[in-house]
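Most newcomers find our protein records easier to grasp once they have seen one. A learned vocabulary of local backbone shapes supplies the integers on the structure line. Here is such a record, shown just as it appears in the course material:
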Amino acid sequence: MNARFGLMKKDDSENNPKLGEASTSDRRLETRCCSILNRKAVASSSPGLPLQLPWDCAWRNHSTAKRLRHLTDEPKRRNRFAVGNQRNSLSRVAEAATLGWRSQPRCGSPRRNGHPVSRLPRSRVSQAIASIVLLLAMGITLSTVARNQTRQPLPPEKRLRYQIHLTLDFENRTYNGIERVRWINRGDHPTSTLFFHLYPNIRFPGYAPPTEKTPSGDLISDEPRLEIIEVRAASNGAPISFALDDQETTLRLNLRDAVAPSAAVEIEIKFKGIVPEIDPEETGLLAHVVQQVSAAIRSTREVRRARDTNFRCRGVIMLGAAYPLLAARSGDDWFRRIESSIGDALMTEAADYEVTIDVPRNVALYTPVPVQTAQQKEGAHSSSFMAENLRDFAIVAGHNLRSEEKQIGSIVIRSIFRPDHEATARRVLKIAEDALRVYLARFGPLPLKSISIVDAPLVSTMGSAEFAGLSAIASAFYIDFDSSTMRNMPEPIREQRASVEDSLEWTVAHVVAHQWWGAAVGNDSSREPVLDEALANWSALLYYRELHGEPQAASALEEQLRGVYKLYRTFGGDDMEAGRAAREYRNSFQYAAIVASKGALMFEALRKLMGDEKFFAALRDYYSANSLEVADMDDLRGAFIAEAAVEQRRTVNRTFDRWLSSKRGDEDIGPPDPKLAAELGLPARANAKADRNFFTAFAKVGKFFWQQMTKIR
């Protein structure tokens, strides 16, 4: 707490305990320090363990008490008490061993100048030491109990649910749909306002729509569009008033009756959409290379566009988020704002899906889960899908798509591809299979039943895109180096065969890991991208270590992580804090170096500090406590502080601060490489000219660029 403590008069009998009893002051401090020893000691009541929480006192208006009131309701938030105590209170623990425990502010405590004042008990040093020993024993016991607590999924009747019927007109790139959504108020107060996000309507700052028209007179669109036709109550069909806010990226519904806490409401939304046609030249290998070199040399600003994941190209349609999606909510607060940045925009809560899609007969259809039933209609076929615990429902359709799959335990893993990429797609399937086995063993079971990896024609600013249960990797990297197409490529690219194959393996391991970090454990990736992007990147390193051994893992660490940062610095990029929001990074080059690489190296530093046993215990604890929830950095930090040995907790906390909040990259990773700068004709702190020969530079540092092109999201 942020209260100031001073001395009080010696007190009465409560500070003079009977023989064998701890003083009231000591007992209060035991309650506080349990949270230092293990975050779950506060929120998990064990038989015989009296717990006094801040809100048990009359001193109820204190801001800390308000923030902590909800801790006992959600296991995922238990770690936050540990974070606050770790930051503010470890020094008091050390002081207590010499001076005796000081009491915490309590009900009816005297106040001086408007501030609570603590009492100084007559505790002797021996009593303080005894308290420490007792607390250590309690912390170990509670840690063991807490670690065995695994979050159980909510029953179906308490989960959000989407029932969607979509009709896709493949040739005209349009679709019509109706969705029935069940929303449950998990807040503390009634509400009559609901918010949905319309992700296809996101536009980057300064966007100007094209003025060209088709022969029929329609404007040519270079971005997707999602329109709301009507909204009605599912119970009686009554119209519901709605408005489009935030430049038509937010749908606001104004219900006639407020929804009480724990109550549910069902609504129906009719909508239609269109996606743009992407020029195939934007998705080719050459375009990816030029884009990445340009980002490195010119430091141009990039943002993700709605067209990046909602488009038609090379006979494939991708619908990344083609329907209105409920905005995420924390307590009574909605996450309303959508920001354009280099990171992911999607932030949603887990829900169940029942989806029916009608497509022409000659179009193959894929979603995060295999088809459950299929019916033939005149000129079309209708496919039904059912899924649990997904945060979104991406759709891929195409004239000439195939798939192969394998069963790993209860999970089906699929590789979806074009026929001319069959050999590479089979390799992708094998890598994904191996990665899935590693992560299941190290992190824990997934709440998903299938994972799909799609060979998709992504634009040059994206090497991969991740959704719940489905990830896409740019078709440009499903490469056959023996094909006639490759023989026509510039020589610097043809020489990168080994590099491309390594980069593809790393990227497959990375996108599979996102099913744990991003899909199962949700987070606000626009505000704290380290929680999913950096952790998924470190997980790819874990895959290399477990599958290929320590020597190859060390090589991957140097080339895929440390080398990325050092090359970024060599090209003149400034070191930055890895804990910044995604909007603060200029482009994919900077984002990869700071968030994906520097952030991943933080986890490697924590592993070396804590040792494998405690590191993986903390990671599993974080995963199980936050699965199907929306986590934040305090959840992650608290899990590691709680699992660390007592004498290491301050160091663990400082490790987070060092990597996330300071600029120590040159000390911890490596400074700019003057030799490489000289070879490229760059100054040690590059101010590169725009007319540099792209492929000369690429030939020198090609492996880094290939790695970046396949893992940038």
Summary: The two ends are 40 Å apart (CA to CA). The chain has a mean pLDDT of 79. The first strand starts at residue 111 and ends at 112. The CA atoms of residues 406 and 430 lie 9 Å apart.
